[in-house]
Design a protein that fits this description.
about 325 residues; globular; about 5% strand
Length: about 325
Amino acid sequence: MTEPLWAWFAFIGFVFAMLAIDLGVFQRKAHIVKPQEAALWTGVWVSLSLLLGLAFNFWLGPEKAIQYVTGYVLEWSLSVDNIFVFVLVFSYFKTPFKYQQRVLLWGIVGALLLRGIMIVVGATLIQAFSWVLYIFGAFLLFTGARMLFQKGDGESDLEKNPALRLVKRLMPVSPEYDGQKFFTIRNGVRMATPLLLVLVVIEFTDLLFAVDSIPAIFAVTTDGFIVFTASIMAVLGLRSMYFLLAHVVHRFVYLKTGLAIILVYIGAKMLLLDVLHVPSLVSLAVVVGILALSVVASLMWGKPEASTHKDSLPG
């Protein structure tokens, strides 16, 4: 990592400032996020992410900038899979519209911390043991292949969620929501609300997604700073993207197939890194191409999956 320490602190300061603005200004009162607001914020985050890539182009050079954009697009595309889970979780717990944004905001704060730790650990391992990249590659190849053929009942998976079971064992859970509170008191007993259960499941799910996405971005670059900034920027825009796409995400029936193929490609690239060098620009084209094809195929030939819990969708 050649970037100076001040660059890390400057970026982390920017992230905290944006979260403080979100919490202090836009989250002071629970409200239903309309598609127009979601589209505006999605545009803001995408624009900021691309501006950061432009800054890297002038500061670190075109190669680093391409690596950042490739990593960002990769992380962004993989994070779209989270939206499927968000819809399922909110539907399962019948979470009211106006409380969903609070859960996602705190979920993203937790995701930033978890991913930051995983990136530091991953970068440290790669610097100490270069063969770790082959383990990452094999894991991504296996994960992508499993995703291609995986079938399952999402709601039954939620019932078996270990994090959910742990919370229920540690403390009593209220059967009803209490506004946007994570804890409440009923009959003199402090209890968790269903909103806390939703948050716990979303955090646990993001941890599982991070196990796939963090190794994937190390196939693009082993520069910890580029990995960190690309991953964090993708996560920061996830909440607004959920409110923008939640109503239509069921139409993207081939998106999971596209994401699985991307993981297989990244895994194979890592396993063959000693015998085949794939330029960053080519990797960017491959990731964007596969993602675009999966979306177009879904819209043209896919049969949309029915949304069985429309009452829990935003807006």
